[in-house]
Design goal:
The structure is a homodimer of 374-residue chains. With 374 residues, the first copy, chain A, is of the alpha/beta class. In chain A, 43% of the residues lie in helices and 18% in strands. The first copy, chain A, has two domains: 171 residues, Rossmann fold (3-Layer(aba) Sandwich); 187 residues, Dehydroquinate synthase-like - alpha domain (Dehydroquinate synthase-like, alpha domain). A seven-stranded mixed β-sheet of chain A has the order 1-2-9-6-5-3-4, sandwiched between helices. Chain A starts with 10 loop residues before the first strand and ends with a helix. In chain A, 53% of the residues are buried.
Amino acid sequence: MTSQTPDSSLGQVHIDLGDRSYSIAIGPGLLDAPATYAHLPVATSALIVTNDTVAPLYADRLTRALESHYPRIHLVSLPDGESHKTWETLNLIFDALLTHGCDRKTVMFALGGGVVGDMTGFAAASYMRGVPFVQVPTTLLAQVDSSVGGKTAINHPLGKNMIGAFYQPQRVVCDLDTLKTLPPRELSAGLAEVIKYGPIADMAFYDWIESRMDALVARDPEALGHAVRRSCEIKAWVVGQDEREGGLRAILNFGHTFGHAIEAGMGYGQWLHGEAVGCGMVMAARLSAALGLVDQAFVERLTALVRRAGLPTEAPVLDAKDNVGRYLALMRVDKKAEAGEIKFVVIDRPGHARVQSAPDDLVARVINTSVRLP
Amino acid sequence: MTSQTPDSSLGQVHIDLGDRSYSIAIGPGLLDAPATYAHLPVATSALIVTNDTVAPLYADRLTRALESHYPRIHLVSLPDGESHKTWETLNLIFDALLTHGCDRKTVMFALGGGVVGDMTGFAAASYMRGVPFVQVPTTLLAQVDSSVGGKTAINHPLGKNMIGAFYQPQRVVCDLDTLKTLPPRELSAGLAEVIKYGPIADMAFYDWIESRMDALVARDPEALGHAVRRSCEIKAWVVGQDEREGGLRAILNFGHTFGHAIEAGMGYGQWLHGEAVGCGMVMAARLSAALGLVDQAFVERLTALVRRAGLPTEAPVLDAKDNVGRYLALMRVDKKAEAGEIKFVVIDRPGHARVQSAPDDLVARVINTSVRLP
């Protein structure tokens, strides 16, 4: 896609999906401003869904900002972390909705990171067969990726994000100020998804990320603002063409096939999603090189950038006896797999990705090359 | 709407929903015929979802009919009954899908009554964010109502069908031969939903039901065939105009507001859904009369027909101390309620329904008039 030059104007990114279109507001100071939430669907009640880490920081502030819009505002706080992205936790949201007498018009607000956003979105898709919801992402990863595009899900013990829905929010509110309180590990995890957009869609953006990585890690507001905005623009461009992942959208899963295997194999929550994606991108780049699509210099350049973001680049051992077998088994339950054949997002030239299968022995070699020495 | 004269041609009813359109095949001998399942989406595997009552009757026969279409056919059998329409049971379907390595193209088949259809549909909507599914209803209730129109759901302890999705099947297969094995109580339950279509949409069909009720109860194949076909036509007409229940579709819930309160208040599975709807229609007709919309003769005519179908017409006591309060509390969590105000489907003239609220004291009087004397 055509790149834009970096600029400091933030404002709005529009996702064009017909009658499911919506905007992403990006900027500082948005969370507390009642105007941020104007012109949402009218309702007598709202439910804020958050987690025990985010609630003390932002729940009261969001509640106050919503007070002029909704007569009744309820709150449910979930345990924090990927290991809680389960039906049991999801049911806490349904319990809250029903206990508070929430109806078909109740607007739900997802206040937190990717796990809160994915679970709130799926709860909104399913409660009474669908109520409106708003994403208020407070992590970099959620702002640049998971809150945008309508993918919602929970995990199943046998696979990540296996149970969910395509369900678009009414609005996404990315308050850049929330990134100031983010733990360093979470910031790095978000940078993995920022980096992702370069190899798959926009090498000019990738050049910019390389030039500004130190500023991004140091949380320079202007750099973070541009990273969020450009990431959302690319994601909006992809999702606008392929909402339900019939084709193109799968490129957004660059690094995720290996990454999901790492997350599941280590136990959800051991590696952050972004950490697994960071390492997974290095592995997917190596596979692309092994397939003769990109050169070794491209792999090394990506590896260096992932490392500079504070992310792991060496794969964990998932099974001491049969590590390759374990990786392959976990990747075969990936949603992109068909008839047991694993599909990988590979870079076929810098700035462009495609989905294809690969011989098991080539994949095995990539895993063995990538593994962390004990 | 305009009625058709009864005829014996069955064949197909079409549901027109743009790119989600599909047909309902109605006739004898369909379940076993491989041709019934031609031209469905191509897949390497299929999963039949059924229950422990239906499996011994039809699972092998459906498996054989599908063998020429799918290389691998898996089966999962759920415990039977409304009390099992829960997340725990739904998870048995997800376990089966993942254990068998089912992918995004796997076609699911719902073989059974309304509970199996609702749960299979919700599982299909949610597995990997959506896989295709086919309804093969084996009860009269599922053939005339629940398998058509894409409403899927599970129950929550605090309310019926509270968690679900609008998700259309690829096809509905109503094999009339399956009605021969239906227990009498299930047949009556299905007749409740057949009767429903008269007062809300088609008094000529209602006249026909009255004239053929004895034949319907005696399972006359021609009478049952016409009842299924005409019911599906009316449902297709309503759903084609309002897929997601923004307005008109709510009339299909005639009798269901009182009915859901009875089902939940008695404990799911104590009263069959159709039994609760039968009694609920009598109560909703009484409310319509109390509101001055229809006359007492209309109420008595409906009560007589519901009774002839073998259905209860007297409401159960849900709370010995505060029966009216219990009914009202249960009805306030109905999906049609808004801001705690209960919405009822009332008959505003025979053959036409609308949704409106009603004063609590009027509703209380209807409940007290309807209650079964101890």
